[in-house]
Amino acid sequence: MDQEGIGMTIQPVVQGRNIVKHYGHVTAIDHADFDLFPGEVLAVIGDNGAGKSSIVKAICGAVQPDEGEIKIEGKPVRFHSPLDARDMGIEIVYQQLALSPALSIADNMFAGRELRKPGFMGTVFRQLDKKRMEEFARQKLTDLGLMTVQSINQAVETLSGGQRQGVAVARAAAFAKKFIIMDEPTAALGVKESRRVLELIQDVRAKGIPIILISHNMPHVFEVADRVHIHRLGKRHAVVDPKKISMSDAVAIMTGAMEPPPVEEQQLTPKAA
Amino acid sequence: MDQEGIGMTIQPVVQGRNIVKHYGHVTAIDHADFDLFPGEVLAVIGDNGAGKSSIVKAICGAVQPDEGEIKIEGKPVRFHSPLDARDMGIEIVYQQLALSPALSIADNMFAGRELRKPGFMGTVFRQLDKKRMEEFARQKLTDLGLMTVQSINQAVETLSGGQRQGVAVARAAAFAKKFIIMDEPTAALGVKESRRVLELIQDVRAKGIPIILISHNMPHVFEVADRVHIHRLGKRHAVVDPKKISMSDAVAIMTGAMEPPPVEEQQLTPKAA
Amino acid sequence: ESHGMATSACLITKTDTNPFFVKMKEGATAKAEELGIELKSFAGKVDGDHETQVQAIETCIADGAKGILLTASDTSSIVPAVQQARDAGILVIALDTPLNPIDSADATFATDNFLAGELIGKWAAAKLGDEAANAKIAMLDLGVSQPTVGVLRDQGFLQGFGIDLGDPNKWGDEEDERIVGNDVTAGNEEGGRKAMENLLAKDPMINVVYTINEPAAAGAYEALKSIGRENDVLIVSVDGGCPGVQNVADGVIGATSQQYPLLMASKGIEAIAAWAKDGVKPQPTEGKDFFDTGVSLVTDEPVDGVESISVAEGTERCWG
Amino acid sequence: MSETASKGQDYESSLSRATSSVAEFERRKGLVPKIRGALHSTPALVPLIVLVLSIVVFGILLGSKFFSPFALTLILQQVQIVGIVAAAQSLVILTAGIDLSVGAIMVLSSVVMGQFTFRYGIPAPVSILCGLACGTLMGFINGWLVAKVKLPPFIVTLGMWQIVLATNFLYSANETIRAQEIEAQAPLLQFFGTVIALGGARLTYGAIFMLLLFLFLAYMLNQTAWGRHVYAVGDDKESAELSGIEANKVLISVYMASGLICAFAGWALVGRIGSVSPTSGQLANIESITAVVIGGISLFGGRGAVMGSLFGALIVGVFTLGLRLLGADAQWTYLLIGVLIIGAVAVDQWIRKASA
Amino acid sequence: MSETASKGQDYESSLSRATSSVAEFERRKGLVPKIRGALHSTPALVPLIVLVLSIVVFGILLGSKFFSPFALTLILQQVQIVGIVAAAQSLVILTAGIDLSVGAIMVLSSVVMGQFTFRYGIPAPVSILCGLACGTLMGFINGWLVAKVKLPPFIVTLGMWQIVLATNFLYSANETIRAQEIEAQAPLLQFFGTVIALGGARLTYGAIFMLLLFLFLAYMLNQTAWGRHVYAVGDDKESAELSGIEANKVLISVYMASGLICAFAGWALVGRIGSVSPTSGQLANIESITAVVIGGISLFGGRGAVMGSLFGALIVGVFTLGLRLLGADAQWTYLLIGVLIIGAVAVDQWIRKASA
Ligand SMILES: Nc1ncnc2c1ncn2[C@@H]1O[C@H](COP(=O)(O)OP(=O)(O)OP(=O)(O)O)[C@@H](O)[C@H]1O
Ligand SMILES: Nc1ncnc2c1ncn2[C@@H]1O[C@H](COP(=O)(O)OP(=O)(O)OP(=O)(O)O)[C@@H](O)[C@H]1O
Ligand SMILES: [Mg+2]
Ligand SMILES: [Mg+2]
User: Where is the ABC transporter domain (chains A, B) (predicted)?
Assistant: First the structure.
């Protein structure tokens, strides 16, 4: 699937080719391709177990693929851990959230980039500025509509399912520079909270940061996505334009009820700028 | 909120009154009531952190309430652990799933009620009938449309988010006798798999087993529920009839944008039979 | 509480699991009861547990004891703690093991462990006669940390057997061909058996076995028995406890050096009683810098040139 | 609405046509994937490989001195006590616990067997039963405190270790019962010491018991419901309870089984050292934990195979004897065993990684 | 579609009117909830209560013999070595590890300090630095093996324990350097033994160092990013890594800190016993772990407060001295300490439960 012929000058932010990952007998990624372009919201949809989480983990270094190559902004990369990706400004909301259960909301939000007190206490004694971090965390959660969090010092393990997810989403949105991956960010969220996340996604895009959104919620996908990557049986099955295809056709392609459109009709690159 | 005056003869399967649960400074359940009637699908909706999971956990003994009383079929009960509830035929799909990560799908499905080999090996040597359990598990997952599970001996921790949820749902549906509680059973499921779970809920109801369904997915709720229990700030805020109220009003009540209808207009008991 | 009235004394041993120290405690308790002294006993958890002994001394000071009987795990490190006790007016008597330097304690009631080893070494050499030159010797020691008693007995044995010691302060540095190897036993049957097996695997023709104590000897015997060599090997040991002496009678052990812990302990209590009463300190044995409670070789096969007592006599004087 | 629901959202209309075949991918073929598969499904294989490797290496270095039926069966004998105790320890560690009291229970049980016979003149078979019951009781107390009072296993068994050991010394008055007396009056106590000689190989009943015990436990853990529950409880106790496993019963049964096995170890100990000695077994806890961990069972519970512990114990046995035969002296052996323990587990880890 | 999206599903129309106030419930008032709150937010409070209770009980039983400045400061002195080591152990256990080599590292460091001064004639301050460096190096090796080679901490530190201890015996040739010599030639080695007498109270610099060390660690763990990372790594290493914490660096730093603290313990040990003795500290690992666990730190990592370990060590110290002064003899003391360890943790558990 060459895309050089079409888009010409647009360089993808992420380009994955022929990625393969086996776990023992299990094939999680089966020669999959992947492209994310600047400034877009790319939705990834697919059945359970299609390999959506696996491929985004391969992109951000949380999983080491067996084969294939990944380029970030044209440069081949090989992340050995998600830290490498984070250092490049890539943030990810994992489906399993990746929070430290016994730590507080603020501790989780700032893990690895804590704020220190200004002045002497901060520089010499390296004291944390807990108050500032808590205020920030509280603010971010309130922005997401999670007003039922009663104490910002609660351990994450004592939060409700949706509150936890809110913490993870807020963290990624607050710190991303290059792009954000969100693996089913609204799965556990309520109606109001989901709506806020969709707004957040649009805000982030407005700042020019592209987003990969994995979701099973078709109305959400069709509302915010610029392109929809359909994953099936470990492969990229098709990429479609949500404005040109109906939800029901997309679902049909995703579940194998319908053949994907021919490659030339697919939306492998964004519309020429 | 007395309901004795209205329904007269229908005895609720579950009746909770004035349930309270504090965690340190946090109030999870704040004098909440709860009713489930025979043969119905009761949906519970509410914001994140409203206390939905907490109240169903209190009902099945996974959490010990500080105050309040719970009756099952008219008899006051005090479950000390979820085992007590299970012995009565109550099954629950926990929001956090409650699976043993390192064990296989079949092991998880049959935890605590394993099948033994027929004959001598089973009775004397108490050998497990692994083949039969695996077949059963495979069958249940296929029924749910989870056809991407490649090996039934995979440890649960290696399954995708949706596959895991499928295992928990299949387990509860297969073994329930009295009633089933499902805490966001479709949160991680794909379009096709969610649809199967909704069908499953209807099948279970058809067998006369009532179901408590917690969900943030309004279309789903309005599709399958007989009554909708709206939870807000730790309390039962209102109970409405999904056939008489619009989704948008239900959401408005749930989020505090609208006052709940007066008690007499609520659906505290099912329509007289 | 009744303190202040009765004189109180402390007994601090290395461990209280080794029968040797158990007997020592029995002797002290019996004598203390007889003289109306209140006795508290302390012990390390394992051999070499020095910290617990320091704590024990501190506790005795806090408790206002009149005297301390001490078998030190670490003979020089304990000295400052002992000094602290003596400064507090407590009579400190070293039992079994002299402190380093020996005058750090007010008195020492001890056996000469080196001599105990030397006796069995001489006996074994004499027993073998000319064959001693071709002996194959297994050395079953106490532990890798080489506690002093173990080193003294080991080196004494080698000296008695006529082997060059190298550094007399440690075992294992000897170069004599006759030594098949050293292994450690922790002073119990299990360790004795395993160590013996290891050395037998190295050289199945071992014919002399030195053991640190009688339990280790019993374990070594089991190992030999399992390959049918129990009758061609000479086992020697140190201690002289009743089961050990019985083992000499049964032919498990060829000879053992008997010590007298009960005697040490009761003498010690007497000395504390005297100190509490009149403030007199006990005197050492003539010509030695400690009060020697003696050691005798127990065997039913006496050899020329080594003084020994019979098993019957040994049984009469045995301690556990 | 309950009858023939209007099939949800309109975009779901195509669902009925969705394929319903199970996902299939081509299986990778060849030897390497096969080996990988075997390593994955049989966790005890890795320590077995390390064991075989170490036997081969020492065999090459030492020749027939080591690679003889005599030396190899000697290792089995030397390992039997630690091996039996490691079996007990494995069970406990699989439940995410730890049992520091194993050695103490073993010794007290053997003392009970001996003293009941010799002090009170009770017939040996009855005394042995009393000893086994005593071990089981200690195990029960451990299990009860862990499961019901919800104390950390480390603390419970640490406390029990001290209590049982002190009881042992107080009760036995540190008196050894001599091998010769036992042989004469109650040879049943030495039953496990009975030797079967086959050529140079010398197997004792104790060593055979150890092997059978491991096979039995492997069966129990893999083929019965109880075994699956042990894993589930160790994996995540809360989830296990929520999903309907009587976690407390499982825990208590595991600690009781551990106590009983330790009592058997006490009986085997009498067979091995001939006498009943209250000072034995002081290192049994650390040595058994070492065997279990080298055998690949996770200290965090729920992962690993009990056979691994047998191989773990044998690995340490092989190293110890091999090094002694190579002429390393006691202190150096001690040091090298430290190095080799780390090395063995590093190799284990490396094989696992290579096979992932 | 990217500009002014048509606000999703129609049922969401009312969302703009949803309340946006944060949930508020009336705070329960009164003493009991206040105490509960304090117990919740300060995990070290529970062992502190147990400690105070046990001091009071022994004080009542023993009167002024126990409840005197002399006896109480004596406990501090007796506990100092275990306390310092327990501080190191706490760090490691907070990362879900365990350090069995603490005692060995402590002793080897003190031997290095002593032998460098006396065998090679290096000035004492330099030797002390060498000793501290030696401890840190041992810690680094532990940490490197745990973090980079990904071996289980139990195995790594078990192996290191044997290696370091054997090295210690081989290097020191089991020779003690006597207190008198040290006093005469290198009194700096005994620095931590310096006594400050205040009335009957006798504090040593070592005991003061222990207290300061705990305060310092409590600050580091609670008030710095490093501390939060230690907790996060212990809580769930994988999540910590995924969320951007350099888990391996944190682990290595923790084991290095542990090694360094153990080396300080070695220095303090010289102060305490006066001499440099290669056979000391054999029980330091089990005693330090006991203190940590009694202090309420979870062996599974990530939960608990370092101050708890101090109280844990003191609880054991109080029991030991108290029982001894009550006249219990050694085996009975061990037995009772076993009972009391279990009891202390049961009380701790009970207080936690009551306050939940
Ligand atoms: N560590 C692992 N070991 C073995 N199999 C794995 C592992 N991780 C994932 N898999 C398998 O790989 C396949 C793809 O999983 P993945 O999590 O990527 O699916 P997904 O598309 O994200 O599904 P969902 O929508 O349910 O989250 C699944 O069949 C899963 O069972
Ligand atoms: N163990 C606990 N300790 C402290 N607070 C808790 C605990 N469990 C729940 N809570 C708090 O109780 C409140 C209700 O939580 P609950 O899980 O019942 O919410 P929920 O309605 O199920 O939310 P969601 O839709 O997000 O699952 C939340 O504010 C949560 O933070
Ligand atoms: Mg996924
Ligand atoms: Mg919930």
Answer: 14-258
pLDDT tens digits, E22-69:
666 666 667 776 777 777 777 788 899 989 999 999 999 988 888 888
CA C163 to chain centre: 22
DSSP assignment, residue A92? E
Asked if C297 and C123 touch (Cβ cutoff 8 Å), the reply is yes
Q: φ, ψ for residue E343 (rounded to 5)?
A: -60, -45
Q: How far is CA A223 from the centre of its chain?
A: 17
Tokens representing residue E131 in the block: 């000793």
Phi, psi of E305 (to 5 degrees): -125, 140
Cβ–Cβ under 8 Å, residues A154 and A105: yes
Calculate the dihedral angle through the C-alpha atoms of D96, D98, D99, D103, rounding to the nearest 10 degrees: 130
A contact residues 208-237, partner D, Cβ 8 Å cutoff: 218-219, 233-234
- Alpha-carbon gap, residue B69 to B67, rounded angstroms: 7
- Let me know: does B19 contact B55? Beta carbons within 8 Å: yes
CATH assignment, E44-354 = 1.10.3470
Residue B5: per-residue pLDDT: 46
pLDDT in tens, C258-295: 999 888 898 999 999 999 988 888 888 887 788 888 89
| Binary contact (D13, A250; C-beta < 8 A) | no
Name residues whose C-beta falls within 8 Å of residue A235's C-beta, 6 or more positions apart in sequence. Answer: A30, A31, A32, A51
Chains D and A touch (3+ CB pairs under 8 A): yes
Cβ distance of E15 and A219 shorter than 8 Å: no
> Does the predicted interface ipTM exceed a cut of 0.90?
no
Kindly tell me if the per-residue pLDDT of D21 is higher than 70. no
Domain regions of chain D by residue span: 44-354
Please state the φ and ψ torsions of residue B34, each to the nearest 5 degrees: -160, 135
Q: Which residue is closest to C41 within chain E, CA to CA?
A: E329
Quick one: which H or E segment has residue C148? helix C148-161
Q: How far does the centroid of ligand 4 lie from the alpha carbon of residue A44, in Å?
A: 26
D14: tokens are 């195509």
Q: Do residues B17 and B33 lie in contact, with contact meaning Cβ atoms separated by under 8 Å?
A: yes
How far is CA D55 from its chain centroid? 21
CA distance D325 to chain C (A): 5
Strand duo C38-43 + C67-70: pairing? unpaired
E177–chain A nearest CA distance, Å? 39
Residue C111 — φ and ψ, nearest 5°? Answer: -95, 160
* H or E element at residue D99: none
End-to-end Cα, chain E, rounded Å: 50
Contact A24 D37 (CB under 8 A): yes
CATH topology of domain B14-99+159-265: Rossmann fold (3.40.50)
E67 contacts E203 by C-beta, under 8 angstroms? no
pLDDT value for B37: 95
pTM of the model: 0.89
First to last CA, chain C: 34
Peptide bond into E69 cis (omega under 30): no
Largest CA distance in chain D: 90
Spans of all domains in chain B: 14-99+159-265, 103-154
Chain E hits for A114, Cβ within 8 Å? 225, 228
Does the distance separating the beta carbons of B111 and D228 come in below 8 Å?
Answer: yes
* Substitution target from B88, B103, B149 for chain D, most D beta carbons within 10 A: B103
The reported pLDDT for the residue numbered E4 is 37
Instruction: Say if residues D330 and D320 touch (Cβ distance below 8 Å).
Output: no
B113, D9, E311 from A116: Cα distances, Å: 53, 50, 30
User: What is the per-residue pLDDT for A272?
Assistant: 54
pLDDT, mean over chain B: 89
Reading the block at residue B219, the tokens are: 């279309």
pLDDT tier at B8, thresholds 50, 70, 90: low
